[in-house]
Amino acid sequence: MARLDYFAPGVYIEEIDRGSRPIEGVSTAIAGFVGFTEDVRGGAELFKPMLVTNWTQFLNYFSRPNSDGFTDFNAYLPFAVYGYFMNGGGRCWITSIGTQLPGAPKPPDPQPASLRITGRGNRPTLQFSMRPEQLAAGTIIVLISDSGPRALPEGTEGSVPPNTGEYFKVQIRRGDETLEEYDNLTMNREGNAQFATYAVTALRNSMFITIEDISQTGQPLARRPGNGQYELAAPIVATTLDRFSSDIEGVRDDRTGVRGLFEIDEITMIACPDLMRAYQSELMNLDQVHGIMELMISMCEGSNTGDIPNPPNRMVVLDSPPDCPKPQQVVEWLNRFNRRSMFGALYYPWIKVANPRDRGNPISVPPCGHVMGVWGRTDETRGVYKAPANEVPRGVIGLDYDTNFREQELLNPLGINCIRRFPNRGIRIWGARTLVEPDKTEWRYISVRRLISYIEKSLELGTQWVVFEPNDEDLWARVRRTVSNFLERIWREGALFGASPEQAFYVKCDEELNPPDTRILGRLYIEVGVCPVRPAEFVILRISQWNGIETDEQQ
């Protein structure tokens, strides 16, 4: 803005903003998962969401050291997350609801947490265990770093041996507080105590941990533990059956469970694959499963209507129960669930993937994770406007049921998206519908719902600069220009239908929408209309016999 006061003669430099402010599109493929994991460590917390950007990070947070990340009781969450990343998914948020099934037998006495540390060649060297009286105090961090031989006291004859790399230091921490520190350690049991102390001897009187030498024979340098920060946490106790359903639901203020995921604005896709593991293990009945599904759908709808203060850009990917393998059974289950929403999508049947815990033999898992990965891959390669269908889900080696054409004629009108096997074309996702009511045809397709959510959220974030600006015709023109430029850009990308921008969208912000009464109330109304492209779900080829001679005679 130009200055209003010029008193001294001279040259004044003023910077003035010109033109519109470009609107940047938001991310559309960020997933949220709820389910069981093998472990919870590395800063991750039980029932609280943790950001994960690749499978290696998932292993660092939710698997035991040197593990494959899967569980002995075949929890479905690791399969879903693995399929999500394999199919092109980007970052996601993981909420662990436990490391074992509720109701699992508890040990009579709390078992001390143990940690095995390896050295060169991944050979075991030391094993640390937390003292039982420290279990309730929280996680302990063991930090191992380089050190050297102990210096001789001043005036002592002799020389310090060279630092061969075998010496190390151990720090025991809890949070930012250093509890104990042991320097000049070695793995040499018969070393000179004047220069270094055998690690087991030094830590024998620790108040927080116990130590055991599990190394094999070899030189001290070969048996030295590797540098790093290691976490020593108390074993996670499974939740009780009577609290399991409420723990999955969570508390919004505590950012736990399903409700905690909805407090993370960037999440656009949500799934809870281990609902079916809980149902299979008789931890939850079908009505309780429906309750969690209803919660996820209702919170997405609440965001859209303003009941819940979160962006309306989320969809829930649901799975059918494992005891409904046939089409008619899925239809009967969906009728019993009896919940329709444009923010829900259902895929059938379950898929078969390799199980690392069973020598690679196939295991049937819910398809939600692989499907959400395909959504992310389609968004990245084609755009959010492209229906995530006619795509090959990677990592799938079979289906629980081979749906044929006539059976899909029963399922597709109900919003049940089929995953089918085609000769010479592999296994493909062959449906792109939401679970909306049949009469709301404008929200029938997943791509349309997600495109509109993408536009809404992008406009919401891209017009924040308008707030508290003078509500006049100049502002209206700037808003129209900014929004129109964004919509024209996505029209050129192919997201909107029309031969020209005028046919694809309109933006209205003028005196008619903003009369003096609304301006006095401090309101600015902007009306936006778009014409989204829709998938060619049914391709009809009309073929007839044609006689060129008859046509020539008619002419």
- Give the strand order, joined by hyphens, for the main sheet: 2-3-1-12-13-14-18-19
Give the CA-based shape.
globular
Range of strand content: 15-25%
- Class derived from helix and strand content: alpha/beta
CATH topology of the largest domain: Rossmann fold
**What share of residues is helical?**
25-40%
Supply the CATH architecture of the largest domain: 3-Layer(aba) Sandwich
What is the number of domains?
3
Please report the first level of CATH classification, the CATH class of the largest domain.
Answer: Alpha Beta
Mean pLDDT: 89
Largest pleated sheet: 8 strands, mixed
Put simply, the count of helices is 15
Number of strands: 21
Question: Uncertain spans, ≥5 residues at pLDDT below 50?
Answer: none
| N-to-C span | 72 Å
User: What would you report as the Rg, rounded to the nearest angstrom?
Assistant: 31 Å
Query: What is the quaternary state of this protein?
Result: single chain
